Amino acid sequence: MTTWSRRGILAAGAAGALSACSPGDGASQPTSTSRPPLDLPQEGSPRPTGSRRDWSQLARHVDGTLARPGSSSYDTVRLVENPRYDASRPLAVLTVASAADVATAMAFAQDNGIEVAVRSGGHSYPGWSAGGGGGTGLLPSLVLDCRDLSRISLSGASATIGAGAALAPVYAALGRRGRALAGGSCATVGIGGLTQGGGVGVLTRSMGLTCDAVTSMRVVTADRVVRTVSADQDPDLFWALRGGGGGHAGVVTSFGFRTSAAPTVSTAYLQWPLSAAPQVIDAWQSWAPGADPRSWSTLKALGGEKHPDGPILVLSGTWTGPPARFDAQLAGLLDHVPAPVVRSTHTRTYLEAMLSYAGCADIPVAQCTTGAGGALTREAFGATSHVAYDALTSAGITTLADRVEDAQSSGLLEAGVSMDALGGRVRDLAPDETAFVHRQALATVQYTATFPPGRPRTADAYVRAFRAAMVPYWGAHAYVNYADASIRGYRSAYFGANAARLADVKRTYDPDGFFTQPQDW
Length: 521
Fold this sequence. Notes:
By secondary structure, the chain is an alpha+beta fold. It has 14 helices and 20 strands. The chain folds into three domains: 9-37 and 54-145, Uridine Diphospho-n-acetylenolpyruvylglucosamine Reductase, domain 2 (2-Layer Sandwich), CATH 3.30.43; 152-261 and 497-509, Uridine Diphospho-n-acetylenolpyruvylglucosamine Reductase, domain 3 (2-Layer Sandwich), CATH 3.30.465; 265-348 and 379-493, 3-Layer(aba) Sandwich (Vanillyl-alcohol Oxidase, Chain A, domain 3).
C-alpha cells in the first residue's frame, strides 16, 4: 500500500496560469493507471527526505524531461513570464508529456512529502507557478511545466486543445480554419488558466466567457484517476472547473471546446487626456455594459514614466456586427464625451484582430512568444483586481483619477487601471450555472503597475492602495484569474455564493487535502 503525504499542489492562480497540463492519452472514460506510476515504498517504510529523494526514479517513469538545479536546462525552464519571480529556485522542473506523467509526479510528490506547482502559461500574478524557494516565501517545489504541451485539433465546430497551449497559436490554429473562441489578448497566456478561472477577453460580450464554450475536460484527480468530465460525467467537478480556478480538485490536461464561426472584427482605439475622466468614465460605464452584445470595450487610465506628458485614458473596442454599423455603435459613447485626441478604427479578420491585440500583427505566430526565438519580451509587474457591480459616482471617478495621477511621481514605468465591460452573452447563464459567479457585474477591473528592476514592493503598494481606495465604490469582489495573495475573504471576493458548493466539490474529489495553495477552496 502506497504511503500518502498531505503535502499538495501549489497551483498557478492567475490570468492564464492556473493548474493545467496537456493531454497525453486517449481514454474517454474515467480510468486509473493500470499499475502504480512508481514503484513506491510500502506503508511503514522510511519516507525519503531532503537529498535522499530519488529523483532518478521519477525521471525513469515519465516521458517528459526532468531538470534539477545544476542541469543545463534548469535556469531556462524554471523561468515564468513575470521576471519579478526569477529568484525562485524549485526543487525540480518536470516538462510534462502526458496525463500519465501528471499522475506519476503526483504519486512521487505524495510519497516524498513535497509541494507541486503546476504551470500552463506561467502568468500567475502571485508567482505560485514559479516553484517557490529563493526567498519567495513559498516552499521549494516540483514544478510541472506544461508550456510545451500544446496540441490543438479541430473537427468541424469542435476543438480539442491541450491545457498548456498559449493563446496566440490557439487563435492561429482556429482562425485559419474559420473558427473562433472568445479569450484574452495576451499572446502567451495558457488556455488552461484562462478557462478555469472563467476567461474574460475581447469577444466576451458577443461569445460569452471562455469557460462557457467548454464541453468536456480531461482531469487527473488526487486519487490519480484520469477522468473525462462533462455535464453528464462528474458534473459537479465540471461545474467547479469552469470559473473556480485551477489546482483545487484536479489537474486539467485538455479541453473540449465548442467553437464559433470566426467573425469579421472591427476595432477602435480612442485616447483622451486624464482630464476628460469625469465625462468619459461616466459615459463609458453607462454605455459599455449594456451596449449591443456584439460590442465590447476596455477603458484604461494610465500614468507613470511612459507618459511624460501626463496620464491618459485609452479605449480599445471590438464590434462583430456589420462593419458599416460600427460608427453608429461608437456614437453611443462619443456623442456624450469630448472628442478624442486620437481615433483609429480598422476592420480585420478574427485572426488578424486577435494577433493585433496580442502585439503580434507583424511577426510570425511562432515568434509570438517570450521564449527561445521569440520576439516578445517579459516585463515585471504587480497587479490586483476588482469586479464592479455598481457604476462609479462622481466621487469614485475623482478618486480613480487621483490614483492614476499619483503614478506620475511613483517611479513606476506604467501604472493604472483597466475596466473590461461585461454584460452581453455573459449574462446568458445564471450566476450559479458555472463557478464564475459574477455574471451580473458591469465589468472586471484590473490594477497594474510595471516597474524597473528592484521595485516590486513599490508596484504592489501602488496597486493594493489603489484597490483599497476603490472599495467604498466597488466593494470587495475580485477576479480569481487576477489573484492577489493579500486579499482577505478571498472566497467571498472570488466566488460569492458559489464558494460553499466549491468547498463541497473539494471535499468530494480531494478529501485528504492533497491539493493545497495559498488561496484554496
